[in-house]
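Researcher: Go.
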Amino acid sequence: TFLAVVFLVFPSRKTSSVQLISKEEWISLGVIGGSFAIYIMIINWMGYLISTWLLLTVVARYLAARRISIILIWTGAMTIGTYVIFKIYLGAYFPVGFLRI
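Model: Structure:
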């Protein structure tokens, strides 16, 4: 935090002006940040697998203009991949949710 304040107070010669965030960037921050906030609220109720799959699907659908079927397959593969690595091989705790998976 201290370094961030120093860089704002004493900017370098190359970056002497600070650009404001555009409206589209604020919307992106809101969509992705809001999705993550909802994810944090529902992960204990829905469990890791379902809530993570939903989060990744919403964010990927917002960021990439691809077919929903492709997004569902890839986000499902990423969710299952992280589950296998962290839960099965490394023994990490993940919330199981109402389905107990």
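Model: The radius of gyration is 19 Å.
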